[in-house]
Amino acid sequence: MLIAVAAPVFGALGVALAHRIPNLREALSFVAAGVTLVCVLMLLPEVLNGGRPEIVLVELLPGAALAFRLEPLGMLFALVAAVLWPISTLYSIGYMRGNDESHQSRFFACFALSIAFTLGIAFSANLLTLFLFYEALTLITYPLVSHHQDDEARRGGRVYLSYLLGTSLTLMLVAVIATWMVAGTVEFTPGGILGSEVSNSSIGILLALFIFGTGKAAVMPFHRWLPAAMVAPTPVSALLHAVAVVKAGVFTVVKVIVYIFGVDRIAGLSSVDWLIFFAGFTIIAASVVALRADNLKRRLAYSTIGQLSYVVLAAAILAPLSMIGAALHIAAHAVGKITLFFAAGAIYTGAHKTKVSELDGIGHRMPFTMIAFTVGAISMIGLPPAVGFISKWYMLQGAVSTEQWNAVAVIAASTLLNAGYFLPIVYRAFFVNAPAGSAEHGEAPWSMVVALCITAALTILLFCFPDVPLALARQMMVV
Amino acid sequence: MILDHLPALQVVVPLLAAPLIVLLRSGRAGWFITTAVSWISFVISILLFIQVQQTGVISYALGSWPPPWGIEYRVDVLSAYVLVLVSGIASVVLPYARASILAEVPSDRHYLLYSMFALFLCGLLGIAITGDAFNVFVFLEVSSLSGYVLIALGRDKRALRASFQYLIMGTIGATLYVIGVGLLYLMTGTLNLADMAERIRAVEETRPVLVALAFITVGLSLKIALFPLHVWLPGAYTFAPSAVAAFMAGTATKVSVYVLLRFVFGVFGVRLVLPDLALLEMLIIFSAVAMVVASLVALFEKDLKRLLAYSSVAQIGYITLGLGIANADGLTASVAHLFNHGVTKAALFMLVGGIVLRLGTSRMDALAGLSRRMPVTCIGVALAGLSLVGAPGTAGFITKWHLVLAALQEGQWWIVVVIAASSLLAAAYVWRFVEIAYLRQPPAGAVTKEEAPLQLLVPAWVLVAACIYFGLDTSFSLGGARDAAAFLLGGVR
Q1: Nearest-angstrom CA–CA distance, A467 and B396
Q2: I need a surface site. Which of A26, A46, A294, B357 has the fewest CB within 10 A?
């Protein structure tokens, strides 16, 4: 487990040292990614068998150590990050070289470190460890977001930092310390750690501090950093803002609800009802904005905001089935959205287009890219045969079983909206003819196309074989 | 045998070094001696710390005159902790000082500077170790007078003005303090702090005792640079030679906080201070204002050194805030922050010293694109800056954690808000540096790469590493602070 976190760190060091020899540098990135993936995969059988491997790194505060303990939800998240890292490395190499980006060494080093911190979040045994890696992830991704170093990147980076640090340094830290004070511990424990003496209203306040303190989950009104962060190069947007950073946010939310509050402890409390409304509002509002966005990445960003709140909504329903849906959706959305981002980056590299309105007929020139895009879009909408269908199915089941018709309505309405902003892109790409006289171009570099085909295939494969994530998600609910 | 005399040696060694350096009249020898002395002091302080952990309070009768008649040197957990901090920072700053001072101070004054440095060190250590109220005043003056000289040695004419300003304010502070001590002597008939704590109970409700408390608190607040008595600090830190600024920022105000802790909790006791005097409430309010206002000023400061100086004023607010909350976690935060902030700020001033050496200035607009010219320095500033912000994994986080915890225990939500606001502002001013250094284009014709010399970088990075180390392994910084807090509160009951 330690190796899994250490490998990317050493990878980053190697990348920094080998900055003069690009081929060696990229090879090192792959080696680190490979080692990480193998380590995480080796941990999988143990966790599936009910094992909870544990490492205490250092006693930070009396009673709260920096420690790792792997449980099913963390395993799922680690798995997602570890599987998608090598693929996006492959993709990034094509993108960075294809677009002649500067500072590639810094890029790959920060990239590797952000994976290390993501795994740290996934493995964390208590809130303190999680908080530490959460902040570290924010800081290390900042250079990636403002990679271009121009005014726009600076502005984007500033918004990014101020939202993420602003929420976590104020609300989340207080939430962690308040938890420590009322519960006397911050360990993640199945069933939660809040005793019966904690009053209804303090639970409500604590939950609010956690939800809004986790700025990475992008629950409105703390969502603006995500579109701002789209100034980053597309591989960053893909891995970080479809996988690592945003998933770290919703992962934190689910983890806190399951292992700090305890689903049974807070189910049915009047002080936690509001969360469904906030999440539902975020889903609908973000989808409406996405509908009107012409910039492709911006549309994807708002779609991400909406999809993240699916996870929050599913967690807020507080039914076992919907919690499983929430956990599954972390994985499902990750593979789907990364495909979409990859496709957006490929379109930019191959055709230098960033707007939805310019995509007429592009499906004929970049067939692989656009087919993958279509698969991703189907997953986002939640239709078979893509994995998004499965997670949405569980969410709906959970909502129906607890008779939360508001949530059902939100999910149904947003499905329509999702279709409304994704299908026109597909339609334009394949069924509208390209305007006469437009420049000829083919597919993006092969490494990008391969990467996005792999993730698209994963989206379908996970639909057919959802056993592993499903088993992990089910185990999470076993107290 | 010699181990029994460690408390005396702690002060006497640097005290003897000072005239020796003047006699030798050589900058190089002066540097060598001061460095050796600071290392010896560091070793002594560590030995004392261990000894205190094992055997409890060490009482040393100077000249074998038994207390309370003679001067008693009294080493307990708290003073040993402060001794380690002061001598530790001195022994990191001095190896740094050689190169930095060669560049900043005319060579004929070097021996004076080192002599004053030794004296300054002696004064600070003396304050921490002595158990006698008047002796505190003596050492306070020793450190202050040498401190004025050290600041005046800065290369800029404005250093003289800053030094003079500090002289005036510092003297007022010391005078107020000594008046307070005089009143206490009048009422209790003793100068020994431990003895005074006993005898004050009989007269604790009388007016002179309360007035003495007021004099001492305000006098020390001047030396602490507690907002709004901080006006001397930015000038002093900005114009002093870099090595001096680093050492002062890390230690001088901290030692004054130590004296305040001693008086408020050791002599007067919370029992006396708490009811209807509202002293602690006042401390909390002034600290809160310092944390927000000084951070805001820092945010708009045009000079990196001044920015750091105002940040110090804000961070001192953290320390006095913990003192004002006055529960176990608050005091732990307060004492731990003496150490954590001392290390952090010394690291920052040392790094900035390197920048000044290369650029000749620390104005913010001159720093554009600095990361390309001095990458190692810039990373150091960013990392130590994170400790100022209180990001997890750094020393500053440990303090903030306890401070928030202390405020929550008292149910003071508004303090939590202030702490959060202050750390956000800290993030903003640290990020201002990062943006300028990393994301701006360097001016045309700038030197491509010119790192600070290793003599500056290595000591500075030792402290930067300490910022991270003490954010992860808290057994010394937090363990010591916890013991000290328990000791302070235990002394009351």
Answers
A1: 45
A2: A294
